Amino acid sequence: QVQLVESGGGLVQAGGSLRLSCAASGGTFSMYAMGWFRQAPGKEREFVAGINWNGGSTYFADSEKGRFTISRDNAKNTVYLQMNSLKPEDTAVYYCAAKVLVVSTHPNEYEYWGQGTQVTVSS
Question: In angstroms, rounded to a whole number, what is the distance separating the alpha carbons of residues 1 and 84?
Answer without folding.
Answer: 32
